[in-house]
Design brief:
With 124 residues, the protein is mostly beta strands. It is built from no helices and eleven strands. The strands form two sheets. Strands 2, 4, 5, 6, 9, 10 and 11 form a seven-stranded mixed β-sheet that branches. The protein has a four-stranded antiparallel β-sheet with strand order 1-3-8-7, with no helix packed on it.
Length: 124
């Protein structure tokens, strides 16, 4: 179906920046919404940012003005630019992509795929 590969996590000091990327591959017919979620230890997974097919974006309140989501439709890739990072941003970040893939019978079917997760650690 559709596979996602994430990159770009790491360790950064408070106030620093990181850029996450997520590339989708497979029998993709079209991609609708692409998003980034995060899960900190002992907490539920939360939506950080999302971007629709027409480039409409949405952010959770805690990252507004600091994070920016973007997509490259030609490369089926979504990015998350994270600036002014805080220790509270420490979490495993997962990308999620929703769209349609071409099945073995040539029919288009909906998919929702997740990346493997990438650790972001912000030290104080």
């Amino acid at each position: 179906q559709v596979q996602l590969v994430e990159s770009g996590g790491g360790l950064v000091q408070t106030g620093g920046s990181l850029r996450l990327s997520c590339a989708a591959s497979g029998s993709i017919a079209s991609i609708n919404t692409m998003g980034w979620y995060r899960q900190a230890p002992g907490k539920q997974r939360e939506l950080v940012a999302s971007i629709t097919g027409d480039a409409s974006t949405d952010y959770t309140d805690s990252v507004k003005g600091r994070f920016a989501i973007s997509r490259d439709n030609a490369k089926n890739t979504v990015h998350l630019q994270m600036n002014k990072l805080k220790p509270d941003d420490t979490a495993v970040y997962y990308c999620n992509v929703v769209g349609y893939y071409v099945d073995y019978d040539k029919k288009e079917r909906i998919f929702s795929s997740w990346g493997q997760g990438t650790q972001v650690t912000v030290s104080s």
